[in-house]
């Protein structure tokens, strides 16, 4: 059985962690093994990189920041995500390539195409089966973060114009790949959002099962040779 790769994207305060937890509980009830992980920080190396890029002191050049995220991603995919997928696990990941395109490509204005190519190289072209984009107004996201913890990391602390570019790029990415993306209004009730995500994951799981049955049938010897 091949696993399913689901990524959750969106601006700060959109509720990615909450929805990942609810989705994981639902999948467990259906007997599926899961792995919840995140970028940056899904490996020991990634944890060090996360501390540098989000909480480190001093200026980090935009290109250096992009390369640090790519290094985290390369290690994470090679040592955590691919092995889990090969074992048939449903991987639920908080942020992936789309985050880098939005935050470094658009937010830092490095260019989305350049960041996409860097991440493709780092991951050996691993693309999610489904990407859930939790879309939220920038001001509302800031309000939620402030209410939850009252402090911001390096990216969260960027100006509103930065985060508007991020949001706009996310929506453009979703519009360009509607088969991969599910865009959800993050102001909906928590359980309503969860239901929308479960319905789309159900479709993805069924599609994967159908593909595996087709592959098995194609590999089976002809009836007279069995």
UniProtKB/TrEMBL annotation:
Keyword Ubl conjugation among UniProt keywords: no
A Pfam family this chain is assigned to: Thymidylate_kin
Lineage, broadest ranks: Bacteria, Bacillati, Actinomycetota, Actinomycetes, Micrococcales
Species of origin: Pseudoclavibacter chungangensis
Protein known as: Thymidylate kinase
Binding sites annotated in the UniProt record for ATP: 10-17
HAMAP family in the cross-refs: Thymidylate_kinase
NCBIfam families (alphabetical): DTMP_kinase
GO molecular function: ATP binding; dTMP kinase activity
Gene, per the UniProt record: tmk
EC numbers for this chain: 2.7.4.9
Gene3D superfamilies tied to this protein: P-loop containing nucleotide triphosphate hydrolases
UniProt family annotation: Belongs to the thymidylate kinase family.
């Amino acid at each position: 059985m091949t696993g399913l790769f689901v990524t959750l994207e969106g601006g700060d305060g959109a509720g990615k962690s909450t929805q990942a937890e609810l989705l994981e509980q639902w999948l467990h009830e259906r007997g599926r093994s899961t792995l919840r992980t995140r970028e940056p920080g899904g490996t020991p190396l990634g944890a060090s990189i996360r501390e540098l890029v989000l909480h480190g002191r001093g200026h980090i050049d935009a290109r250096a920041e992009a390369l640090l995220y790519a290094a985290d991603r390369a290690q994470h995919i090679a040592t955590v995500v691919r092995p889990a997928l090969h074992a048939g696990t449903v991987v639920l990941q908080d942020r992936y390539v789309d985050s880098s395109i939005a935050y470094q490509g658009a937010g830092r204005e490095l260019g989305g195409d350049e960041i996409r190519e860097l991440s493709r190289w780092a991951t050996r072209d691993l693309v999610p089966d489904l990407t859930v984009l939790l879309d939220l107004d920038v001001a509302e996201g800031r309000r939620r973060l402030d209410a939850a913890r009252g402090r911001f990391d390096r990216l969260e602390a960027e100006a509103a114009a930065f985060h508007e570019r991020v949001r706009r790029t996310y929506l453009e990415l979703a519009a360009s790949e509607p088969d991969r993306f599910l865009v959800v209004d993050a102001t909906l009730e928590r359980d309503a959002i969860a239901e929308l995500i479960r319905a789309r994951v159900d479709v993805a799981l069924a599609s994967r099962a159908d593909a595996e049955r087709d592959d098995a049938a194609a590999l089976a010897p002809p009836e007279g040779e069995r």
